[in-house]
Amino acid sequence: MKQETRSTCPYCGVGCGVLIESDGAHITGVRGDPDHPANFGRLCTKGSTLHLTAAAAVTRQTRLLQPMRRPTRGASLEAVAWDEALDSAADRFAQVIREHGPDAVGFYVSGQLLTEDYYVFNKLAKGLIGTNNIDTNSRLCMSSAVAGYKKTLGADAPPVCYEDFQHAQCLFIAGSNTAWAHPILFRRIEDAKAANPAMKIIVADPRRTDTCEIADLHLALQPGTDVMLFHGMLHLMLWEGWTDAAYIAAHTSGFDALKATVRECTPERVAQACGIAREDLLEAARLFATSAATLSLYCQGLNQSASGTAKNAALVNLHLATGQIGKPGAGPFSLTGQPNAMGGREVGGLANLLSAHRDLANPAHRAEVAAFWGVPSVPEKPGKTAVEMFQAAADGEIRALWIACTNPAQSMPDQATVRRALQRCEFVVVQEAFSTTATCGFADLLLPATTWGEKDGTVTNSERRISRVRNAVPRPGETRDDWVIGVQFARRLEARLGRAGTLFPYADAESVWNEHRDSTRGRDLDITGMSYAMLEAAPQQWPLPEGAPSGRTRLYEDGVFPTPDGRARFADVAYKPAAEAREARYPFSLNTGRLRDQWHGMSRTGTLGRLFGHVPEPTVQIHPQDMARRQLKDGDLVHVTSRRGSILLPVSSSTELGLSQAFIAMHWGSEFIGGSASTGEPLAGVNALTTSAFCPDSKQPELKHAAVKILKAEMPWSLLAVAWLPQETALEAREALRALMAAFPFASCVPFGAAGTLQDGAPQRVGVLFRAAAYEAPPEELLVRVERLLGLAGHDSLRYVDRKHGQRRTARLVREGQDARLEAFLLAGDTRAEAWIKALLQERLPAQSYGRQLLKPGAAAPVGVATRGKVVCSCFGVTQTAIADTLAGTSGTEAQRLAALQGALKCGTHCGSCLPELKRMVRAAPVGTAGPLGTSALVLQP
């Protein structure tokens, strides 16, 4: 039976509404909800493909569909019944608690859980077990923003809303590639700029990202110097008389102490420390202070730092000093990274918080929560935060870990410590929807959870707006909702700990939410006037206390703040350099960040080959001058090494970066890149490099900077194997190939997609790409296994083998009409023919006449076979070459040429995620010629 269900996107913190189309037990489509106030029907590339990640073939190959138990460490997982799984978990946790105390267990949960899930686990840890050892991957994401808001404004509450984009006269974007991390908000920024061309946009970011394409001023500051930048801007505001003395006197405290600090931050000193021009510093300060309304947007560039709280607070200082807060279009706006990081903070789902924004350190708050829950007390001892929790497990202090809806074996910094923790911990439970995450490999017990399209509950987005998440299809297999798993475990644990068994009486998600709602009465986020019935009609912003007709759009319009004296507090914070200083041995500053079409560890987006069109493979990017200085060229393999570990990656040049800077996307974990280090240990992805140094206030680690060195890896033998595979087996083949990665010093394995059109309804081709390198040719049996997994082992494959020189070529062609198409190939030893052979396969070009050339090492590209470049528009499969060819015949203004391009190819007309790149390409192409569009300067990846 076909139906349409309103729900919310499970990706970033924008909180877009979606309409899920389903037919019986299958999700068949998704589109933006035109009535949802976050997105008004728009979706980005990730949201637009949600239904494809829920396809039956994907679910069967990637989903965890029944409980699994590992009888002993190192043994294979075995299926187990739910009752037996939960009983064993309760037995083990109860044993650890009795023998070692409640703080010997820990819970690590996720900003992708629903608020109801979060509430149950928070109550389970702090109310039942009596430990504050519960933290979340939001600690890696938003904890510095929380601490910054509380330090200055008195409460963790973004004071602005999405409507403020259209009221702002100046937009100050700091440490956020909004165009990629929050694409639908960027569409709103583009709309606001088009409606008000006089609006000025400033972007402060070490990289020249797609977000900079809309900027009037780009401050390419040195990594980690944000506090110095903000202090320098305030210094100039004071010098020029651009502060709001009346607002400061009436609504703030602590300004004199801050003035003494910023007095030393002269333009000369700031320009030198930040690596920017004095004139640009002055212009940024002028625009911020003197515009009628200034709105700042910030994200991980400020948060993921050992000075994260100071960076957040220093930016808020600028708003308080200029009165740019509490009015339409003005205020500091922290962009939430995950879909429900805000909801997790609301229920107190972090080691230092309690329900409804109460502080664990406050005795009165602990007493309130204990009384509300009906328990004798809430523990006083601070819990272990994310980094501390895994360090404690590695040290043997935490003996049982429960991990829900997150993948710390990919996402946590300093992977050597994290993996040691997971190996040493006596009992590890992983509650997960996807069986393919790296963390599942460390689990003693795997519990299958529902995911998007199957769950029921609520989430809160960046603007304090609560939306309903609804199930559109039945739960697959034996999966259960996260809150249900938590309750069923808690009830068993209650019995084993000799408790009365009344803490978890919930019958459904709504009953959990109602208890959470009641806990907010009288708090800054009071939602006692909100109900599921009200949310069924429309999403609502908090606060919305009982009796109020609607939620509050923006906060602090009356200049009264939730502090003891009602005044906002200037934070007198000092500038400190990045935690890990660069030196001659480690001369590069490594930055990590998002890709446009991928999400976190790619357990969901990584199932779709089409989402790898824009960035097809992992690389490390550095500046062209750094490439030349080290005699590197695009595609060369390099060792990237920090004080904690080393990984191998291809290198690519990028003018987006400054000198001595490097960038690796955060998504590349051991699920996609690997190999075996000299120690024999498997490589652990990008977070083998990152540091666990964290902000002393927020405990958020510095994922945005690590000192690294980059050295060329001399590995003369290489391998590339690519194949189209049946959709029903492609992901299983990738998992099997992933198991072979450790046999090579370097290997990567990623989905491979066709540049098809999302809207045409045709089945999407599914492919797998396997790349490896070694010092010498590996055993032939290993290559035969690769061939077998990619369908190249049959008698219908052409093959050339030169064992003496380590050369191997295999190709399989499939007859189509009067010709044949290349279906799969393997190049081993010499991969110089990669570009044209891969194009032959990807473009489905006639290949019958190229049989001999396919098997010839280093064969030159035949006439008529050319690569189309990377995919720019994922929705319509539009590539660089197609764009270049189309632009060559256009004339007129940039806007006219863009319109002609979109009219001809449709690129940028669906989700809009590619618009910044399209505009850059239009500007770069001279009228009447393709210009530099086909050159490597515009290619982010080789």
Automatic annotation (TrEMBL):
<protein>
    <submittedName>
        <fullName>Nitrate reductase</fullName>
    </submittedName>
</protein>
<keyword id="KW-0560">Oxidoreductase</keyword>
<dbReference type="InterPro" id="IPR041854">
    <property type="entry name" value="BFD-like_2Fe2S-bd_dom_sf"/>
</dbReference>
<feature type="domain" description="4Fe-4S Mo/W bis-MGD-type">
    <location>
        <begin position="2"/>
        <end position="58"/>
    </location>
</feature>
<keyword id="KW-0408">Iron</keyword>
<keyword id="KW-0411">Iron-sulfur</keyword>
<dbReference type="InterPro" id="IPR006656">
    <property type="entry name" value="Mopterin_OxRdtase"/>
</dbReference>
<dbReference type="InterPro" id="IPR009010">
    <property type="entry name" value="Asp_de-COase-like_dom_sf"/>
</dbReference>
<dbReference type="InterPro" id="IPR006963">
    <property type="entry name" value="Mopterin_OxRdtase_4Fe-4S_dom"/>
</dbReference>
<dbReference type="Pfam" id="PF04879">
    <property type="entry name" value="Molybdop_Fe4S4"/>
</dbReference>
<dbReference type="InterPro" id="IPR041957">
    <property type="entry name" value="CT_Nitrate-R-NapA-like"/>
</dbReference>
<dbReference type="Pfam" id="PF00384">
    <property type="entry name" value="Molybdopterin"/>
</dbReference>
<keyword id="KW-0500">Molybdenum</keyword>
<dbReference type="Pfam" id="PF04324">
    <property type="entry name" value="Fer2_BFD"/>
</dbReference>
<dbReference type="InterPro" id="IPR050123">
    <property type="entry name" value="Prok_molybdopt-oxidoreductase"/>
</dbReference>
<keyword id="KW-0004">4Fe-4S</keyword>
<dbReference type="InterPro" id="IPR007419">
    <property type="entry name" value="BFD-like_2Fe2S-bd_dom"/>
</dbReference>
<keyword id="KW-0534">Nitrate assimilation</keyword>
<dbReference type="InterPro" id="IPR006657">
    <property type="entry name" value="MoPterin_dinucl-bd_dom"/>
</dbReference>
<dbReference type="Pfam" id="PF01568">
    <property type="entry name" value="Molydop_binding"/>
</dbReference>
<keyword id="KW-0479">Metal-binding</keyword>
<comment type="similarity">
    <text>Belongs to the prokaryotic molybdopterin-containing oxidoreductase family. NasA/NapA/NarB subfamily.</text>
</comment>
<dbReference type="InterPro" id="IPR006655">
    <property type="entry name" value="Mopterin_OxRdtase_prok_CS"/>
</dbReference>
